[in-house]
Amino acid sequence: MSTTGIGTFTIRPLDPLKDAELLHSWVTHPKAAYWMMQDAKLPDVEREYMRIAAHEHHHAYLGLHEGRPAFLMEKYDPRYVELTGLYDPEPGDVGMHFLVAPTDRPIHGFTRAVITAVMDELFADPRTRRVVVEPDVSNKAVHALNEAVGFVPVREIDKPEKRALLSFCTRDQFLAARGVAV
């Protein structure tokens, strides 16, 4: 659980079948273009999240704001998923993706509160030493958001589906970005 000036966020494991219809509406929304599922049908979303649920090194979660679904979070081990062979992983590296649900009534600072809640969740595990992300190089909004919570861009990498900006955030960098003495 993470409490901010915007409210309380909780995170629960995603239920691939129960949550698929909701996820489908999020991942096919025009604002989710970087999620690369714009043309997905409901069965495609169900299959993708069933695949993730069955994977030993990849997990999906539904984030709630004040008890209502508000974002999707994926956590993965970059030694086995997404970044295999694209960088030298270190012990305690955890990969992350997040997607904020589309809304007609945006709340100022909401997306930053979401990524902060996601990072709180990841660093709640004492084994997590560094969070790794690989957003599309053209996604300037997420680069700025990542940097605001402590991520440091390292280099561009070529993934099969995109050119990505590999970035890292240690626990100390995250705490410093939040203004917590380290």
Please give a structural write-up.
This protein has 182 residues and is of the alpha+beta class. The protein is built from 5 helices and 8 strands; from the N terminus they run E-E-H-H-E-E-E-H-E-H-E-E-H. The protein has an 8-stranded mixed beta sheet with strand order 1-2-3-4-5-6-8-7, with helices on both faces. Strand 1 and strand 2 form a beta hairpin. The longest helix is centred in the middle third of the chain and has 14 residues. It is globular, with a radius of gyration of 16 Å. The protein starts with a strand and ends in a 5-residue tail after the last helix. The mean pLDDT is 92.
What is the topological layout?
Layout lengths: L1 E3 L2 E7 L6 H8 L14 H13 L3 E8 L2 E9 L16 E8 L9 H14 L6 E4 L6 H9 L3 E7 L4 E8 H7 L5
Parallel strand pairs: 5-6
Antiparallel strand pairs: 1-2, 2-3, 3-4, 4-5, 6-8, 7-8
Helix pairs in contact: 1-2
SS class: alpha+beta
The biggest beta sheet reads:
8 strands, mixed
- Tell me the strand order in the biggest sheet: 1-2-3-4-5-6-8-7
Average pLDDT number: 92
Principal-axis shape: globular
Instruction: Please report the number of helical segments.
Output: 5
Strand and helix order: EEHHEEEHEHEEH
Q: State Rg.
A: 16 Å
| Amount of beta strand | 25-35%
Instruction: Estimate percent helicity.
Output: 25-40%
Q: Separation of termini?
A: 22 Å
The unreliable regions are none
Protein name: Lysine N-acyltransferase MbtK
Organism: Streptomyces coeruleorubidus
Domain Acyltransferase MbtK/IucB-like conserved: 12-59
Pathway: Siderophore biosynthesis; mycobactin biosynthesis
